[in-house]
Design a protein that fits this description.
Length: 489
């Protein structure tokens, strides 16, 4: 049975219902989906940057629209697996569970994306660190204001004899199986990492009890198999598909990239892309070492040529013109035709949409289920792309990311965002700085004063900010054209 009743248990102790409904009209996963969809943290994703700042254009995606697109892709992937895999045909994967995991997957992202993540991580070194996926878990299972243990929401923390804090908040109080669908990295983040350490994927030490609850009620995979449910793998792969396709579409619209520019990038840049792809392949396809071990810039070229083959295919009229020309004119005709077609593909909305639709359809059709080496429990089988489509997804995703983070247009905002977050964190941490926080956060800080948990609460507050709100808060502190003092938190 793919969804045993034990996995529908909630941390509040509410009696589990059924994933197919409990005699009313909604199953437990439908309830969990609604809780995520209606949460303030989900709404705030509209104010968090995906690739380009949303105030630059109404066209560009933000974290909210990205999450909605990932949810749609996840639903399609689940349907395909249910239609093609012999086990899941009889025991179908719950599409709503995949969708809710996709909706929630970016909820933990702080303002300014990965730049904000790195800034908070360094500020929280020695206090448990910061990481977007860990924060997602913390928000849905701890921070959201729906359920808590006890009778008084004004007293959410108990101090233990050893000086640590017992956090009685339950967040959205999702089922164990729903939380498991969001657990991408089953790895404890060290609570005392050195300031030079990179961001570590996983979950916080303070939230270890949540992981224990999940594993107790969902079960654990066979020895040697890492914890990841089939729904989580669908969410993860759908995120990669959306990144590789829709971020590329936004980059085309913004004029940062076009097919010809991608094809003609320096070999050194493509070497960097190839190295990232190789490391990802090493992690997810270790059994195919002979295929990825020598992956290089020339292979990146081959992937790009395959994607943009239409641009390289000259029509018969152009071929006839070229064949009768001298060498210099041939080169000029080929170059001008390729440049013109490349520009059209980047600038014309119909062409961009056509490319995105083609890639999404191709990648969804390329999803397979890996059972070998994953034990006998279908809960822990995983979805993954066939290897060729994996290479294509990784090349497109890495290419767009690397070309944009290295852009002179975006580098200044990277440094500015780190300064903003650092300034806010320092101000709130000093003395009576928490008086500048909303009342609920002030109350929480007062309850944990004198403990390391105070830094975590301050970090939670900053991580929940939208890009716009964090800039406004910074302007209040720095005195640079501050907004009205009566503007609410």
């Amino acid at each position: 049975m793919l969804y045993p009743k034990k996995g529908l248990t909630r941390r509040s102790g509410q009696n589990p219902g059924s994933e197919s409904g409990d005699g009313t009209y909604r199953g437990d996963f439908h309830r969990d989906y609604a809780r995520v969809l209606h949460s303030p943290s989900f709404r705030r994703l509209a104010g968090k940057t995906q690739l380009f700042p949303s105030d630059e254009s109404d066209f560009f995606r933000n974290r909210l629209t990205h999450s909605l697109e990932v949810a749609q892709v996840a639903s399609s992937v689940a349907r395909r697996i249910n239609a093609t895999n012999s086990y899941y045909k009889k025991n179908p994967i719950n599409e709503r569970l995949c969708e809710l995991a996709a909706l929630a997957h970016d909820i933990g992202h702080p303002p300014f994306g990965h730049n904000g993540e790195e800034a908070l991580h360094h500020l929280m070194n020695g206090s448990g660190g910061f990481e977007g996926n860990a924060q997602t878990l913390r928000i849905v299972a701890r921070m959201e204001k729906k359920e808590f243990l006890g009778d008084d929401p004004r007293t959410l923390f108990d101090r233990k004899p050893d000086g640590t804090v017992n956090d009685k908040r339950l967040g959205l109080d999702l089922t164990a199986r729903s939380i498991a669908a969001m657990l991408k990295y089953d790895s404890l983040i060290s609570p005392s990492k050195a300031p030079t350490d990179d961001v570590q994927k996983g979950y916080y030490y303070d939230d270890s009890d949540i992981i224990s609850f999940v594993k107790e009620h969902v079960g654990e995979p066979a020895p040697g198999v890492y914890f990841k449910t089939i729904e989580c793998s669908i969410m993860d792969i759908s995120d990669d598909i959306a990144y590789s396709t829709y971020d590329l579409e936004d980059a085309f619209k913004a004029g940062f990239l076009n097919p010809l520019r991608m094809l003609s990038a320096p070999s050194s840049f493509k070497d960097d892309v190839a190295e990232v792809v190789k490391q990802r392949a090493k992690r997810y396809y270790p059994e195919l070492e002979s295929k990825w071990k020598k992956f290089s810039a020339s292979d990146v070229d081959e992937v790009l040529r395959e994607v943009f083959v239409e641009i390289l295919n000259l029509d018969q009229e152009t071929i006839d013109s070229i064949s009768g020309a001298d060498f210099v004119r041939q080169v000029a005709l080929i170059s001008s035709t390729a440049h013109s077609e490349s520009r059209i593909w980047a600038e014309n909305g119909y062409y961009r949409t056509s490319l995105s639709s083609y890639l999404i359809g191709r990648f969804v059709d390329g999803v397979q289920v890996l059972t070998k080496g994953r034990g006998d429990d279908p809960t822990f089988w995983i979805a993954r792309l066939n290897f060729n489509d994996f290479l294509c997804v990784e090349v497109l995703k890495t290419y767009a990311y690397k070309s944009l983070i290295m852009s002179s247009f975006l580098r200044p905002s990277e440094y500015r965002s780190r300064d903003i977050i650092g300034h806010i964190f320092q101000a709130l941490s000093d003395g009576a700085g928490t008086l500048m926080m909303p009342q609920d956060y002030r109350d929480m800080c007062d309850q944990v004063i004198g403990t390391p948990y105070r830094a975590r609460v301050i970090c939670d507050f900053i991580a929940s900010m939208t890009d716009r709100y964090s800039i406004e808060f910074y302007r209040r502190l720095a005195g640079t054209d501050p907004p009205s003092i009566f503007k609410p938190h």
